[in-house]
Write a structure and sequence with these properties.
- The complex is a heterotrimer.
- Chain A is mainly alpha-helical.
- Chain A has one domain.
- Chain A has 8 helices and no strands.
- Chain A starts with a helix and ends with a helix.
- Chain B has 5 helices and 3 strands.
- The longest helix of chain B has 25 residues.
- Chain B is elongated.
- Chain C is of the alpha/beta class.
- Chain C is elongated.
- Classes of the chains: A mainly alpha, B mainly alpha, C alpha/beta.
- At the A-C interface, α1 and α4 of A face α2 of C.
């Protein structure tokens, strides 16, 4: 399986370079901030994943893989591992970056806990669609997703301020739970939830892929 | 080993191969004990299918012209000259019979046939 | 000797097309040609054999084992060549071989290099830039470089010149020298199949019309042609009758019994070719 993941990196290396430069560019423009790094990095991961799906679809790489002695479960899993490995790279690089600019770690954790689940969520829905319907149909969905991705941060702010004003009991209790427990616990919980989301998505993707 | 086979020949391929090898045995080109190519090798040489050469070899075996030893291959059988001579004569007789039946079907009279036979005999011998 | 490939009562339904009750048996050591018109179901059948799509019902045994349960060990021993060889176009032949090799348990890099050299293909060439024939040869080199026992080829030579086709036939004949091997290949180019196939399976509109020894078909079946005005007399004993303005033609399975039942003096009796059989026994698409 590692070969499949490496293949995805290698096959899309030009795109990877492009995207990395874009991220750097954004960072330079916005000034040093790990939040931006994570946001841009998360976006880049998502983009790379979509790109690798595109590439596989275009050259019918899927058919090629199916003629090799590779289990379908491995093929599906490799896409998730690809995504995860990119997110890990983003997380580590952003952490180093955050250390470099001597930022308060809270900023790092907050943006991480915000963006990463969203990326996972978006991909958790994208990938099953991709495995069932292929790249073309999934792209339509992708555009929608993209819009959601762009506007959600703003929406979240709005919702956040709304909540402060309206004082929903349930949400406020969750928020107080989040703010009261150690940030590290929250961080771990968020990571675990994201992984769980991806795992569920994987089961779905596999089922759909095998049923083709 | 070259065996002439042709797509234009109305006979089935296996028969052509059979006849080809049989001929070589009858004319002495292949002597008793000579090794024949394996059915697969022959199929590759002649660019035919394996089943075709298999059938040809089977027929040759039926006629006791070759023997196949498991694990070793196929060889020209030990035969005695008399048997070969009688086989050759049987061939010729069969061909004669064919010609005569054909002639009869086409309405050639017995006398005409005899005349033709005599004429050709004169020319050839 | 066992069977290298067994397809038993295979069924697969799509929206506008269905494969029904497909039965194919190929013993070890032989070559089977798979023929049929476009859209008859050849590629679908092969995809099902390779488990690239899921079957609705039926069994497929390769090397005596179920092709889904033992998918990985089976695929390790199958060499597959597609009509349009599929690889990552922007990458090189060398990379492709290297990549594929990582998944096969018996990858033989030396053999791969040998074959590439024999086919005059450089490892540094980019797949996209190869000609159709060279792409096919690359796929073939890949397929032969992991000690396969069964070769499955899906229209490997369509659109290729006779020279390359001949080379392919040579390679297949070399491959079948080993009695443990088998070859299953589909093609439009019936002359190729006529030459080297031991068995022939004809598929039409998702159904198997026949699956027989090639010699039996080409030796016993005859093409019969005659005056169209006399067709009533013969039509019950002919398969796949075709009628033109002045004449009819049809296929006879057993010419001797046909001769005993009919007066054949006004008919033309010809050897059949696979093309004749295909043309007569195949219904056109819509």
């Amino acid at each position: 399986m590692i070969h499949l993941v490496m293949k995805d990196f290698y096959v899309n290396r030009k795109y990877l370079l492009l995207i990395s430069m874009l991220v750097c560019f954004i960072l330079i423009l916005s000034g040093p901030s790990s939040s931006v790094a994570i946001f841009a990095g998360g976006f880049a991961s998502y983009s790379m994943l979509i790109r690798s799906c595109f590439y596989d679809d275009k050259d019918k790489g899927d058919i090629f893989l199916r003629t090799l002695p590779i289990k379908a479960s491995v093929i599906v899993l490799s896409k998730y591992i690809f995504l995860l490995s990119m997110l890990i790279i983003v997380a580590v690089v952003s952490l180093l970056f955050s250390l470099l600019i001597k930022e308060d770690f809270r900023a790092y954790y907050m943006s991480f806990m915000f963006f990463v689940p969203i990326i996972c969520f978006i991909n958790a829905i994208y990938l099953p669609v991709f495995f069932k319907y292929g790249y073309e149909k999934a792209t339509t969905y992708q555009t929608l997703l993209f819009l959601v991705m762009i506007f959600l941060p703003f929406g979240f702010e709005k919702i956040g301020s709304l909540m402060q004003m309206q004082d929903f009991n349930f949400l406020s209790s969750i928020i107080s739970l989040i703010t009261s427990s150690s940030i590290y616990t929250t961080f771990l919980v968020v990571c675990a939830l994201s992984l769980a989301l991806l795992a569920i998505s994987y089961k779905f993707s596999l089922k759909l892929y095998l049923a083709r | 080993m070259f065996i002439p086979i042709s797509n234009n020949d109305p006979r089935p391929l296996y028969e052509q191969i059979f006849e080809g090898i049989k001929n070589k045995i009858l004319t002495g080109e292949l002597a008793p004990g000579d090794a024949l190519p394996s059915i697969r090798q022959l199929a590759q040489d002649l660019k035919t299918s394996v089943i075709t050469t298999k059938r040809a070899y089977f027929e040759l075996e039926q006629q006791k012209l070759i023997v196949t030893r498991p694990g070793k291959g196929s060889f020209v059988a030990d035969y005695d000259a008399d048997k070969i001579a009688s086989m050759q004569r049987a061939e010729i007789e069969q061909q004669m019979r064919k010609t005569i039946t054909e002639a009869k079907k086409n309405g050639v009279l017995k006398k005409e046939l005899e005349e033709m036979f005599r004429k050709i005999l004169e020319e050839e011998y | 000797m066992g069977n290298i490939l067994e397809v038993i009562n295979l069924n697969k339904r799509f929206n506008s097309f269905a494969l029904s009750d497909i039965n194919i048996t190929l013993p070890k050591g032989y070559i089977m040609g798979f023929i049929g018109a476009n859209g008859a179901g050849k590629t679908t059948t092969i995809k099902l054999i390779m488990n690239m799509i899921r079957r609705d019902s039926g069994k497929i045994n390769i090397f005596g084992k179920d092709n889904i349960k033992y998918e990985i060990p089976i695929k390790n021993k199958i060499g597959y060549v597609h009509e349009q060889p599929i690889f990552y176009d922007d990458l090189t032949v060398g990379w492709t071989g290297n990549f594929a090799g990582k998944f096969y348990s018996d990858w033989d890099d030396e053999r791969f290099n040998e074959l590439l050299e024999k086919f005059c293909i450089k490892k540094s060439q980019i797949v996209k830039q190869l000609s159709k024939g060279t792409k096919m040869k690359t796929a073939l080199a890949l397929a032969l470089s992991h000690k396969p026992e069964l070769l499955i080829l899906d229209e490997p030579t369509s659109g290729l010149d006779p020279v390359i086709r001949d080379e392919l036939l040579d390679i297949l004949m070399e491959f079948i020298q080993n009695e443990e091997h088998g070859v299953f290949f589909s093609s439009h180019i019936t002359s190729d199949i006529e030459k080297i196939a031991d068995y022939i399976t004809l598929i039409n509109e998702g159904r198997i019309i026949f699956s027989e020894e090639k010699d039996k078909i080409l030796n016993s079946w005859k093409l019969v042609k005659g005056d169209v005005r006399k067709i009533e007399e013969y039509k019950d004993d002919l398969m796949g009758i075709k009628i033109s303005r002045t004449g009819f033609s049809g296929i006879v399975e057993d010419i001797e019994s046909f001769k005993s039942r009919h007066d054949v003096s006004s008919l033309v009796i010809d050897k059949t070719t696979l093309d004749d059989i295909l043309i007569h026994l195949t219904k056109k698409e819509n």
